[in-house]
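Many introductory courses stop at the sequence. We go one step further.
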Amino acid sequence: RALIFPLLIREGKPTPFFTFVLALLFCVFNGYLQGRSLTTYATYPPGWLGDSRFITGFLGWLIGMAVNIHSDHILRSLRKPGETGYKIPRGGMFEYVSGANFFGEILEWFGFALACCTIESFAFALCTLFILGSRARQHHK
C-alpha cells in the first residue's frame, strides 16, 4: 500500500518532504522488524499453515486488504478532476463505517497478527488500531 497508493492518487495537496521521509522510515523500520521477527525468531509447528489461527488470520488479512483497496478506489473516485470540496463516500464498507479504508487496514494487520502469532505483529496491529482509529474518529467528526 505504501508504494502503490501514492502512485494511484490524483491531484491533491502536496505532502511535505519531512512527512514523506518519516513515513518512508516508518515503513522500512516496520518491514524490517516484521521480517526479522518472522525469519529469525518465530518458530511454527509442522502443519501451521493448516492451523485454524493461521487460516482465520490469513482470511482476515485478505478481507481487510480487499476492503482497503476497494475503499481507496471509492475515495479516489469521489471528485472529478478540478473539483474541490468535501464529499461523503458511498458504497462498499462506507455504508457501515465512515472510515472504511481505516477499518480495512486495521483488519489487515490484526489478521496478519493472528496468522503470525508473534508479539511484534500484535504490537503493530495495536499501534495501527490506535493511530488509524484516532484518524477515523477525526474523519467521522
